[in-house]
Amino acid sequence: MKVLVLNCGSSSLKYQLINMNTEEVLAKGVAERIGIEDAFVKHEAIGKDKVIIEENMGTHKSAIRIVLDCLVHPQHGAIKEMNEIAAVGHRVVHGGEKFAQSVIINDEVKKTLEECSELAPLHNPPNLMGIYACEEILPNVPMVGVFDTAFHQTMPKSSYLYALPYELYDKYKIRRYGFHGTSHKYVAMKAAEVLGKPIEELKMVTCHLGNGASVAAVDGGKSVDTSMGFTPLEGLVMGTRCGDIDPAIVTFIMEKEHISSSDVNNIMNKKSGVLGISGVSNDFRDIEGAAASGNERAQLALDVYYKRVKKYIGAYAAEMGGLDAVIFTAGLGENSPETREEVCNNLDFLGIKIDAGKNKVRGKETIVSTEDSKVKVLLIPTNEELMIARETKELLK
């Protein structure tokens, strides 16, 4: 069974074709600058040379056509015929309260996703574009929606409800939803495998640390709390997002700077985070380099970042009444030994002891804590595409 996994952004489309009999990636790539001049597709079939196809793509539909042409191309393709694609798994950012698990896409599901677009106006519309395009190009191929928010639907009401007038929740469903759910689920399941223990017996904190970042409390395999909220802005300090702040700051800035709500929203989402503090970059490699050269604001940005992650780990250990493992994943979590070390520093009282030697590793599935560490610290590379393909296969059984 071959599953095509699609992740549609506003002007991009990432894809992987996976053979689910072996879970081997057959091909992968990305279409960039959809609807913009100088568009191109980077494509790689495993075992063959990478190719770049420079071709304008006015819509997601035209991008998907080019991707499918790449997949069946005689020289750089991965399959002989289109009918080898048994299913398409779509990453969908927001499923609201309607979807606590992945679903086979039908008219009712699409209608609900349209309604959820109000909650994720930047993400759900392009996700839907990909779904509609696949319906036209691959009309007889079943499709599955896998939601970033679904894993967190197991949170109790005491974790997801904000202390606002309850009627605002009733009317507008203002609540914590959480994101990166597919990644948190994958690494939690993988960590249980590595530790050789049933996931139902484990209390874990999963740290998805990248330009966008979130932490989740996973108790017995279920998400019971997470740092991102109504939008991906809440929680950790991120590349350009501010994370947790006093909400009164919003109106204060608006009044002092004489700007609109959209202006202040732009500041909090695109000009804040480690970029805002450091003034250097939203790329942690640049910030680490600047800090090493004596840039005090760059070092301050890193210190603020580490402290916020540490704070959430401690809070979730308290909330779950214990902790068995901390998992680091995503771009920074997988590739920055310094981040893992600084976050775990001074957490000995929780039973967390990181091994400096074992921790000198990037992008490799391994345990980086000491042998006598009561709480195991793991590096687990995330694989959201494989998780989406697994959910798609499972549903279509």
TrEMBL record:
Pfam families: Acetate_kinase. Substrate binds at R91. It is found in: Cytoplasm. InterPro entries: Ac/propionate_kinase, Aliphatic_acid_kin_short-chain, Aliphatic_acid_kinase_CS, ATPase_NBD. The active site is at D148 (proton donor/acceptor). Mg(2+). Can also accept Mn(2+). ATP binds at K14, H208, L209, G210, N211, G212, D283, F284, R285, G331, L332, G333, E334, N335. Pathway: Metabolic intermediate biosynthesis; acetyl-CoA biosynthesis; acetyl-CoA from acetate: step 1/2. One of its GO terms (molecular function) is acetate kinase activity. The record marks H180, R241 as: Transition state stabilizer. Its EC number is 2.7.2.1. Its cofactor is Mg(2+); Mn(2+). It catalyses: acetate + ATP = acetyl phosphate + ADP. Belongs to the acetokinase family. Homodimer. Catalyzes the formation of acetyl phosphate from acetate and ATP. Can also catalyze the reverse reaction. This is Acetate kinase. It comes from Alkaliphilus serpentinus.
